[in-house]
Amino acid sequence: MAKNSFSWLGFFLRLLFALILVYSSYNPSGTSFYHWAKEALLAEPLAVTPPLGLSAVVLLIGWTAYLRATFRSLSASLA
pTM of this prediction? Predict the structure, then answer.
């Protein structure tokens, strides 16, 4: 059963993982998945390397988990 207590440690861990997810997906410094994939695919179209593909899958799983949790928490508060 889930524990429904709030702690500052839980808050900061969620914030840290959210920031890592967002900044690894895209950031203006040029060191993100977006820039990596753009450079790789412009150099040779359809040349997806295993690290690039694995990174895409990991980011997709992360975004899916965070968006699902967000929608579930919003719908619970709106009902």
Answer: 0.80
